[in-house]
Specification:
40% of the residues lie in helices and 17% in strands. Helix 1 crosses helix 15, helix 8 packs across helix 11 and helix 9 packs across helix 13. The chain folds into 2 domains: 185 residues, Rossmann fold (3-Layer(aba) Sandwich), CATH 3.40.50.2000; 164 residues, Glycogen Phosphorylase B (Rossmann fold, 3-Layer(aba) Sandwich). Helix 9 links the parallel strand 8 and strand 9. With 363 residues, the chain is of the alpha/beta class. It starts with a strand and ends with a helix.
Amino acid sequence: MKILIFGPKVELGGIETIVLGYAEQLIKNGCECDFLLYKSCPILEEKIKSIGGNCIFAASRRTNYSQYNSDLNNIFKTNYTAVWCNFDGLTNIDLLKRAKKAGIPFRIVHSHTSALPKVKSYMKVVVPLLHYLNKPFIDKYATDFWACSQKSGYFMYPKRLWDKIRIWNNCINPTLFYENEKKRLEFRQKFNLSDKLVIGHVGRICYEKNQYYLLRVFKELLNRRSDAHLIFLSDANDSLKEYATELEIIKNVTFLTGKYDLPSLYNAMDVFFLPSIIEGLPLVALEAQACGTPCVISTGVTRECDVSGYVDFLSLENDISCWCSALENASQKRIPNATEAISSHNYDITAEGKKMFNFLSKA
């Protein structure tokens, strides 16, 4: 099988990590996977090549439509078995239309979110307008409808297609993410956190993840617990650093960027904190649980991410003091048999990747 994989963005974030994880298993089982990119991203390209995938490029539709059109015409001369489109909204389904015209038999939409991304200026009108215009006609061009959760599927597809939604869990590799006391102690010693109440957060900076609210909650927690410390790993965080300075908590926050050993980071935490406004099924919550770390998460996140029974869900309408109490209570626990919880809930990428390969083979 030869598969063309697209989206949703040209970066190496949570969704891209999920897609790459499944693609790696497909490649190991004999598929050939081409990743369609509209701009260069060295980190992403390096990762694609490391799993045995191919990077193919097309011009941006916005900046050079003529070249974009020519590039896609050339790309679809290849005899692909499937096109797998990973979307955070149906604002642009051109690739599916072209795949149908090219006679590609298997045309997949994969929903990775339960709400449209927050955009600026005139796009606030354009993005939802295009999404809801395309949504009723998506089955005219797509043959299969995938999602990371039921909530994500219900958001992306019209109701008449809900019984056709196939859920592919956001999976992790349990040989990488597992409880490791040695890593926990080493990381905490390195950052002078041995005697601290360590709250952790991992995620790109965006409106949906509600990180300014996270800092306000942490400020209140710090008023209760002077030993509290926040570890914050993200892509860029200058604006959040300024806000932490305004809140007078900057000395109690470690902002990290770049590459870090994530299993060590999760193990070092006492609690993983994710107060997202809305989210599909966050990979970071699964990774944290796999490392034995309990989570405090907003009800904007699907409850399917609780695989251990050690995830507390709170409404963002709750008083900040409720969040502080939940963080304190969660910090007194560690998750027993965390690796087993991941595997028993079908979040093991090796097993689920094999299922995806078998599904595609039969189809």
